[in-house]
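Dear colleague,

Following up on Tuesday's group meeting, I ran the structure prediction for the four-component complex that the binding team flagged. I've pasted the input sequences exactly as they went in, so you can double-check that nothing got truncated or mislabelled along the way. The structure tokens for the whole assembly follow below. Feel free to forward this to whoever is handling the docking comparison.

Inputs:
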Amino acid sequence: MNIGILTSGGDCPGLNAVIRGAVRKGVRSEHMTFSGIRDGWRGLLEDDIAPLTTHDVRGISGRGGTILGTSRTHPYSQGGPEQMKRVIAARGIDAIIAIGGEGTLAGAARLVRDDGLPVVGVPKTIDNDLDNTDYTFGFDTAAEIATEAIDRLRTTAESHHRCMVVEVMGRNVGWIALHSGMAGGAHAILIPEFPVDYEQIYAWVRSAHDRGRAPLVVVSEGFMPAGADEQVADKGRDRDGRIRLGGIGNHLAPMIEDATGIETRSTLLGHLQRGGQPTAYDRVLATRLGMAAVDLAANGSWGQMASLSGTDIVSVSMESAVDKLKLVPQQRWDEVQVLLG
Amino acid sequence: MNIGILTSGGDCPGLNAVIRGAVRKGVRSEHMTFSGIRDGWRGLLEDDIAPLTTHDVRGISGRGGTILGTSRTHPYSQGGPEQMKRVIAARGIDAIIAIGGEGTLAGAARLVRDDGLPVVGVPKTIDNDLDNTDYTFGFDTAAEIATEAIDRLRTTAESHHRCMVVEVMGRNVGWIALHSGMAGGAHAILIPEFPVDYEQIYAWVRSAHDRGRAPLVVVSEGFMPAGADEQVADKGRDRDGRIRLGGIGNHLAPMIEDATGIETRSTLLGHLQRGGQPTAYDRVLATRLGMAAVDLAANGSWGQMASLSGTDIVSVSMESAVDKLKLVPQQRWDEVQVLLG
Amino acid sequence: MNIGILTSGGDCPGLNAVIRGAVRKGVRSEHMTFSGIRDGWRGLLEDDIAPLTTHDVRGISGRGGTILGTSRTHPYSQGGPEQMKRVIAARGIDAIIAIGGEGTLAGAARLVRDDGLPVVGVPKTIDNDLDNTDYTFGFDTAAEIATEAIDRLRTTAESHHRCMVVEVMGRNVGWIALHSGMAGGAHAILIPEFPVDYEQIYAWVRSAHDRGRAPLVVVSEGFMPAGADEQVADKGRDRDGRIRLGGIGNHLAPMIEDATGIETRSTLLGHLQRGGQPTAYDRVLATRLGMAAVDLAANGSWGQMASLSGTDIVSVSMESAVDKLKLVPQQRWDEVQVLLG
Amino acid sequence: MNIGILTSGGDCPGLNAVIRGAVRKGVRSEHMTFSGIRDGWRGLLEDDIAPLTTHDVRGISGRGGTILGTSRTHPYSQGGPEQMKRVIAARGIDAIIAIGGEGTLAGAARLVRDDGLPVVGVPKTIDNDLDNTDYTFGFDTAAEIATEAIDRLRTTAESHHRCMVVEVMGRNVGWIALHSGMAGGAHAILIPEFPVDYEQIYAWVRSAHDRGRAPLVVVSEGFMPAGADEQVADKGRDRDGRIRLGGIGNHLAPMIEDATGIETRSTLLGHLQRGGQPTAYDRVLATRLGMAAVDLAANGSWGQMASLSGTDIVSVSMESAVDKLKLVPQQRWDEVQVLLG
């Protein structure tokens, strides 16, 4: 059995561990061979594919990025499934492991359902916004990097008696902000799921300041204050829908300074959160998912993906993972309230 | 309501985050007051107790160790429960949150069951050996530190074409070795639950070496090779039952060198694994457990402890957590086989 | 002898190690007592001063920030030297150790020269722009943090075949960019001392891209391309003269993308570079400088500061350190050329 | 001009940065070609040599170890200089850059002086024991790793009210112990150059304990207490003359515990200190040394090596670097005294 592997969408710490886990498992216990598809769907559409051996994957589980490259090419562009079928047939590829986030998995599910392509999935996102999986690899690393940054910024804030605003990633969900904010001891955590208004933010900042602390505000890139001007909300989104340059953190900092009289600085962590070595947690999770994906392929479980449930790796349908965003639930938001302010 | 908190047994990254989470939650939403009990059961038996305020716990969630101190004093020594009752009554303490591992929780469960003391628990162990909880805080940090060490040792091993043996903690279970070995790309992972023999170890080392790799062996301190001389097994345990000095890593290294002819070095990570800043994962888990323990106390759920189940914090009985060790299961052992050798 | 200590200007990893080194040395070998002056010159002008004991400084050498707080209050504001003299006399302070950068040391030198105040100095700046000292503490930490960030960004850049622009601190000099760029393997290093034009930048980016690399551009915040529009140069400086928001990195990224056709992203490291734990190098240097400053005070060497020369700590005049900026010299610029492109 | 490069002796963070710096410089500005000699002198004696291109060295400056491999093969074994001359002639090698420590540089100096081989050097040692150079790359990384370890061990020691002994590398000199001990806030620093007796060690430990601290002892592997039994001194040296297993830290810990009554634990950092990613400081220094070595080769400066003097890279004779060990001088020992106890 020959398995094609591709990584698609934004890169994510742990991708290489998935690839290694799959290749090691497939070669050693299933006598499979592997084909590395370059840059996600682009490589499949353009037949940019090369053999992938155990030698190619040695020592890579701790390396950031993806040795296969990635892109945002859409699977239904450039000839789409018909073109893919030609490439797959010519290459003798029997199954495809697609490692990606919401868009990739939705595309893969459709390729299976509508076009009968033999695809299984591995969920990937630093944002942790995929449903039907407890966590996705990449999230732990992103939360760890954000926490380390918050630790650093705290000392400079305290020395200068400043308020510090830290903008973290997360797209439309607040998981990275919630976890790094809890871990870093933030006085305000601002997430898209629960859009508090400006006055609440100022109140948290003032409360921390009144107790002699340097107020620390962690804000998810997708957060928008309740009652914010629409102009604020629309300004400066980049091609991924993320707020560019200005950013919500840079929007909030001067407003906090004006409202509270406390000198305020903003830091936008940006791409730091998705690069570099994955944590041990993410390496283990990614390796296990890669190995499980090979089982799915061996069993012909097209349309299924490997998923974390508690401490187990289970099989769920890709469609169930992308059906809706996994939001921070009310209970987690209630839980964190006593830590704020 | 006045809550006494104590930390008992070996220290563990995240203890301070539990303490902070409990105090913040209790003071802010339950109008509780807190008493810090010094050095575990010792402080309770000797009335070494001081008020613990939100001021005392500010900024501590990222700090290693425990601000309350810890000891291995047994709860049934020095007057035991009767003495504790006198201290509790004199101090006006209404409930005790005991943060500890197997021994602490077993003692706490008995204090509730046999002596009617108002105790709730928070599970703590870097070894991840407690049952009825998915993970315990401290484990993620220990596995991360071990993985970083393995990453470092790999480069020196490769430069010298050596085999490197790394001994990690874990007491009688292999979780730290399993996770850090998977994350670090080990060629042999040796854990107490599955005692392979010397020949299997040599075979893994030779296999990696034959492929041009520097063989990397991760061994859990509690591992003993199948067929090992009893003298080896008994030698040099310290007061905690851990192998001292010599250690299993130092035992294996010369044997591997002699059997395979490959120069072999051993490193014993030791206390590095339990000190220093907790990872973001552990800080979040520990904070949530501390907050949940306050709910248990508020509800009078004596004998219960806060526990991780999937992504939820739930309540389970302390007895269920210590009833038996949580071993690495057969399925996880089978899963990792394709990565070895 | 009673010594007042103050930290002034932007905070810097290592400040606490200076304070600890001075107090330990003064108390133990010179029988001095110490007074902690809050928030730089502000505390001296407003008599915000408290005793500083060896107990206060224990365990702080590895902590970021400054336990004394800092501010940008000017020494010749609020009553200036006459007011200081009153405070010093009332407090019984015999000497002041002023820890600060260019502005602080220039102010301190003038207080000695014009007003006869008993001040000695310790040079501090992450920018490494002080003359007559080989390095200043804080610089090594800043360069290390920037390098770690570049390492992270490289993997994401490579996975996406992108160009990555990283803006680092440094004010009007390029030391942080030079060192982190060399350490991180940058393909373009842009520093204020050597303002190359846009075409040169594009050429370096194209050259790296043509060899299959993800082009990595490290730019110092004070860099301005030769031939840049004056509007670009003036836009968006903050109160410290640093480029705010937009920043030079954010200016360059779209221009590079447009000129080369290579997708380009920008990251502004910002305050991350000056917070958190100092490196071992900075802790040792800072500790030694703190101890040497006590010797200067004991000897009445007013107007002198402790300085690093090779591996020795020597005494130089504060005026000599601030007389001119320490620029990256031509020879260091020539040296790095073969690494670019 | 064709340049052979070799790395010899114990591995050291920064070796790859030297190799990259040399190759980039030589290829780009001197039109040289390079030959990678495997495993130090072994590769030269056995003609185990391959072309080394700029492609081979891309992205390696941050990687630990050495891509060329290393060994302890002596240059005067296996046919020695005559054999080397045959290999060099056959390969068309015009110069050799030997990167190594005391033994390697002494051998290289002799090959130049006695046998007329065209060799220049780059000094390398984590121990910082080479004379006539301010620092050697690898030392900063080793001191940083040791300091991070000490930071971790401190928290566990404080929680348990224990004394912690940390044994660091350094061979016959105390530089790593001195710097990591200063940076980590050690209460006792024990180095070979100044062999204090057991009573002094106990006094430092008691003094720290009496002030409520967890005593922290940093001991260099080459330290031996004044008045120590000769049996202690001789026991358990490994092939490199380093104390194996037992180690001086493991020797001291029970003695401290017995003498002071304070529970004491020992940690031996071992090979962790020489592996993994080099610090930014070491990468910059190593890169500059590699580039300077190419200049030496281009100029035919046989017998010379690149060396750090202040902030400059200069040329000194290899013989001057190995003539005597660079010991920790009396003045640095006096300086650190106020920090101990």
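Chain A touches chain C through 39 residues (CB under 8 Å).

Cheers,
M.
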